[in-house]
Every structure is written in C-alpha cells, then in structure tokens.
Amino acid sequence: MKFTLCLSLLLTGLLQVHCHHVPGHHEEHNGDQNPPKPQPQPPAEGRGTETTRYQKIAQINSDFAFRLYKLIASDPAHQNIFFSPLSISTALALLALGAKAETHHQIINGLGFNLSDTEENEIHGAFKLIVHTLNQPNNKTQVNMGNALFIEESMPLLPTFLNDVQTLYEAEGVPTNFKNCAAAAAAADEINDYVKNKTNGKITQAVEGLDKDTLMVLVNYIFFK
C-alpha cells in the first residue's frame, strides 16, 4: 500500500466520527475543480517504517476512542456526545513527556499503549507525524489542531521538556500568573484570546472561573473547515 493512501485511511479513521469542536461551520465549494495539494512524504527508504508506525497508532487510538465513548455514554445525564478522541489522546501523550513513575505509567496505559510492545519514542514520533500532517494547508479542507501549556510563572519548566513539546507536538509553553483572583481572571482572558486566535474566532470561551490555586492549564484546540 502506498504511503499516501495509508496515511489518508489513517486520518479518516481517526477523524471521521467525533472531532469537530466547531459545530455548524461548513463551507461549500461550488465549481472548485482544483485537486488537493499533495501531502509531504518521507524519504522512500523510510516509508515502510512510517506506514507501520501510523497503522499501530491508528489502531490504538481507535480502541481508546471507543473505550472513552463507552464510558461517557454510560452516564444517563448525557444525551448528545460530541468530542475529539484524537485531541484527548494527543494532549495526554504530550503530558506523558513530563510525567514520572506511577503518573507516567497510568497515562501510557490509559491511552492503551504497552511499552513492552511499543517504545515510547515511537509513540511520540507517530503523534508528531499525525499533528504535522493534519496541520498542512490544503485547498479543500483546513484543520488546525494544537496544544498549549499555560504554566504558573513561578514554576519554570525544564528546557528539555519545552523543546520536546514544541518539536513533537507543535505545542507552546506560556508563563502565566494565576496567583490571585484578579490574576486568575486575567489568565482566563489570556487563554481564551489565545484559543480564539487559533480557531479563527470560532471558540471564544475555552475556560472560565479559574481558581487562584491553579498551577497549569493544558489547552487543546481543534478547528475543522
């Protein structure tokens, strides 16, 4: 199977059910005959490895999505269920980069990965390829997906962690002041402005009512047109 075909099938499988956080935003293309732009491909000698990596991550992400859906649907209070499993798994995988011991173990296992079968650098490498490919411009569709860590400014993060989240997940670490009620309210405004900008104004209130004891807010946004 060609790499590009396998990639298309993977992304369709990941996104087809529950990944639109901007309901009702749809634009028809009348008479547009321009073919989609080709997606970037790795060197020929690496395609077999990349294809295998995509397939493995796709299957595990699919299993995670249905387990999570089953859990949410078991609550009788919920009626319509609308979420992005890829966003959730990506955000949790990002957190695993900075976790240790039991916390790290629970994140990895919760996502459905077994480090005896899949090396952790392979997991992060596959997510890197998915995030990068989704965010490539295309004249038929537009997908913007990303993460940001808003961290209490008195608790600076290790440079190696910041480099990894930026390199692997195209994420940002933003020093933020949460220390009092006024600062927490200003931090909420800062986070909402950030998400609003990243989603072309479609998501205007991602967070509200932040507590002054907040130390970190992990934001994942996804925009699909």
From TrEMBL:
Annotated Pfam families: Serpin (PF00079)
InterPro entries for this protein: Serpin_dom, Serpin_fam, Serpin_sf, Serpin_sf_1
Presence of the UniProt keyword Protein biosynthesis in the record: no
Alphabetical UniProt keywords: Glycoprotein, Protease inhibitor, Serine protease inhibitor, Signal
Keyword Glycoprotein: yes
Region (Disordered): 24-50
Ranges for domain Serpin: 66-225
Signal peptide (from-to): 1-19
Family: Belongs to the serpin family.
Name the record gives this protein: Alpha-1-antichymotrypsin-like
Phylogenetic classification of the source organism: Eukaryota, Metazoa, Chordata, Craniata, Vertebrata
